[in-house]
User: Fold Phosphatidylinositol kinase from Alloacidobacterium dinghuense.
Amino acid sequence: MAVLATQAIRRMRGGAQSHLMLASDGHPYVVKFQNNPQHIRVLANELMATRLAEAVGLSVPASEIVEVTDWLIQNSKELSLDLGQTQEQCRPGLQFGSRLVGGLMPGQVVDYLPEERLAEVKNLAEFFGMLVIDKWTCNSNGRQAVFYKRPREKRYAATFIDQGYCFNAGEWKFVDAPLRGVYARNLVYRGVVGWDSFEPWLSRAEELDPQKIWSIAEIVPPEWYGGDLAEIETLIERLLERRSRIRELITLFQESSRQPFPNWMTVSIGAIERQFPEPSWADTIRGPIM
Ligand SMILES: Nc1ncnc2c1ncn2[C@@H]1O[C@H](COP(=O)(O)OP(=O)(O)OP(=O)(O)O)[C@@H](O)[C@H]1O
Ligand SMILES: [Mg+2]
Assistant:
């Protein structure tokens, strides 16, 4: 079910050249168009990965399919895309919309925070949960978030945006690499002390009902991926299989040159043995062998 775009507000920054638009449900959306310069599948990826993140309880914007009519495009000069030397009108039809964080009310939304502000982000631990989604869906871009606070608040909250390069962008192939899909600053991962830090998001992803995953794929407009149902089915089947590999993919990041989890508490068997040495045979008092 789509919402209808009623008005173009302004252009947004970024490679996909999104437009901020008002929709019939009264909300503003950052809209990525089918003929964006990145790839048409960016729309499918945004919808699926944003909904998967939402399903495991992470802070992502509400996501919608936004219908933009030819009439609105013809009557809004700014609904065009710069394609190098040429300009092209936005293509009418079904587009992807990410509801504007903070809405049009006063407040502050920023793409980046200095380290001291970043360290105070209310839901910083959600970066651990988003790593689960990014590794699972093979996000081939860096992790991106926006940070929002109301006018008199001191601390920001993170909302995860730009899932367009999950599933390896237009490729729909899982080409994993340790440093893919991670946030640029190690600071956000400093609080990881072990596997428990990734909960509840990790278990929720591993145990997500396949029916839920299929239902997310079913709402993707076929024109967003070339119309071949077999392709999206293969993608989802592989995604389901990969749930058992999320921990392995996080471990590859853990062991990478970034050393992102300096506070991970490893208790090696060797260390325990040294602390509590095995008593020698002569000292051992055993009861009768039954
Ligand atoms: N839901 C949202 N709420 C608030 N701001 C948003 C939202 N979605 C996108 N933005 C803003 O629009 C910008 C572009 O969005 P996004 O990163 O999704 O697009 P992109 O074209 O893929 O960008 P990039 O070139 O960084 O990959 C973001 O940097 C952010 O400032
Ligand atoms: Mg981006």
About this structure: Residues 142 and 184 are 7 Å apart (CA to CA). The radius of gyration is 23 Å. Residues 3-273 form one domain.
